[in-house]
Specification:
The protein is mainly alpha-helical. It has one domain. The chain has helices at residues 3-13, 16-81, 104-125. It is rod-shaped.
């Protein structure tokens, strides 16, 4: 027999019950594979969630430190200019929602250098400050 005839003969020999078992076996394997993928994906998502929560906590802590630092410099600046009767002090600065977290160190440095410039300017006034 040729290969064409033997394939047709073997296909005819497969009973519907055998074909059903084959399909059921493939469906079971697909179910097991899907469950395994879902478990691994759930583990990935849980670890990503934990990492995201840790990042949020760290960012919140950095924000609190920056706000505390800025408020401390503001109070020190108020102490520096308290002797200057001709200086009108405005309201305490508020955080800006549009600030970028990646620029936090630059913002902090700007506030620190501004405070140092103010302190130096008050010191330069010398006797006029009183």
């Amino acid at each position: 027999m040729t290969a064409k005839w033997s394939a047709a003969a073997s296909a005819a020999e497969v009973s519907p019950a055998m074909r059903y078992k084959e399909i059921a076996g493939l469906a079971r394997k697909a179910t097991v594979d899907l469950q395994a993928w879902e478990r691994s994906r759930m583990a990935e998502l849980e670890s990503a969630t934990v990492a995201a929560r840790e990042e949020i906590e760290a960012a919140t802590e950095r924000e609190q430190r920056a706000m505390s630092q800025a408020q401390r410099w503001w109070r020190m600046a108020l102490d520096n200019v308290a002797r200057l009767s001709w200086v009108n002090v405005g309201p305490e600065p508020e955080p800006i929602d549009s600030a970028r977290a990646s620029q936090l160190s630059r913002y902090t440095e700007d506030v620190r250098s501004g405070y140092q410039e103010l302190t130096q300017a008050v010191l330069d006034l010398g006797w006029r400050a009183r």
